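Late entry, written up from scratch paper. The run itself happened at the end of the previous shift, but nothing got recorded in the book at the time, so transcribing now.
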Amino acid sequence: MGIWGSDIFENDAAAAAKAIFDDALSEGLSVADATKRVREELDAIAQDESVAAVIHIALAALQLENKSLQPDIKSEVINIIKSGKSLSHWADLGEVNLTQRKQVLSVLGASLSA
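Output as recorded:
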């Protein structure tokens, strides 16, 4: 998975999820159906647990933006953030990148818990 920053969509998996999600919404699909499409289209890369976690984080952010957060996504992403299981790729990039990513996830976690 390519990473070019710490923000939610600054990696290949999340950027792909956003593109698929936005395309689905532009086609008139609901947030729930757009979420389903992302999961279906990214299933192959989501076999890696850390990549799947990144995709779910992206979905939570997208659902929040669209004011349609699904309870299962909310719960799953809160657990992902608490566990740190989405951070391995940023840890490989060094402490600065890892710290920045943790901060981004902390802000998202606060939004999810609000």
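The mean pLDDT is 95.
(Scratch paper discarded after transcription.)
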